[in-house]
Amino acid sequence: MAYRLEGRTAIVTGAGGGVGRAIARRFTEVGVNVMLAEASEENLSAAIEAVGDKGPGKVETFHCDICQRLDTNNLLAATLSAFDRIDIVVNAARKIKRGEFFELKEEDFQQVMETNLKSTFVLSQAAARKMIQLAKDRDEPCKGAIVNISSIAATRTLPTLLPYSVSCAALDQLTRSMAVSLASSGIRVNAIALGGVMTRSIKEAMKELDDFRAQMTAVTPLGRIGEPAEAAEVALYLASDAASFVTGQVVAVDGGRSLLDPLATPAV
After folding, report:
1. Is the pTM of this model over 0.90?
2. Contact 194, 149 (CB under 8 A)
3. Fold for the domain defined by 9-259
4. At what angle do helices 119-137 and 69-83 cross, to 10 degrees?
5. Is the CB of residue 40 less than 8 Å from the CB of residue 64?
6. Each residue of 137-178: pLDDT tens digit?
7. From CA 254, how far away is CA 176, in angstroms rounded?
8. For residues 3 and 237, is the Cβ–Cβ distance under 8 A?
9. How far is CA 250 from CA 123, 150, 153, 154, 194, in A?
10. Which of 109-113, 152-156, 195-199 has the lowest mean pLDDT?
11. Is 237 tagged catalytic?
12. Choosing from 83, 164, 212, 237, which is the catalytic residue?
């Protein structure tokens, strides 16, 4: 499929994580210039090694805390300085805090909500303004795309993942609301709900629980754990002209797991 994304520019937050990194790499393979945004310098170094020189798209990095508005503004400025445009934003930065209800601290809840929800709103709003203004300056129609990385935890009652589940549910609604608000400006907004994809949290759970892989595959109709590259393909589609009539959707990438998910199974 021809995605027609050559020469466009994407910001990918959480680019040091498995899914963010895979999305960034896939984008560069089809000619998208990518700004890798990440809070961890170590993860950022690993990301540039994995993504850089893997395709015709150029890659730059920006070390930042997306929960800080100044960092968000500087990220946009750095992207414009490097590539002279912003067309796509992938909000892939995520934070997970586990614990029973009475064990959770207020700051834990706040950190998860700020990373998964507030930062998505702040960056998306600021980037959308830039997209609209840049299109106006160039006297061309705005064809922006925002892709949020959510989870099937948004529709699951998982007591030990309360802040994460709540933040993802809110993120899904934010996706739909932004899609309606930005439609007339030519910007599409969609989300990917991950479930059973090999993220950092899945790897950690597999180290802690001997039978975690077996439990996960048992509740996944396709019978395996997904790869970040499979989520990246969906992100590429949603960001491309191939999805030009798709907005406000939350697409599950979970091997069918959300169809059968038992109550007690973690959904990250």
Report:
1. yes
2. yes
3. Rossmann fold (3.40.50)
4. 30
5. no
6. 999 999 999 999 999 999 988 888 999 999 999 999 999 999
7. 20
8. yes
9. 19, 8, 12, 11, 10
10. 195-199
11. no
12. 164
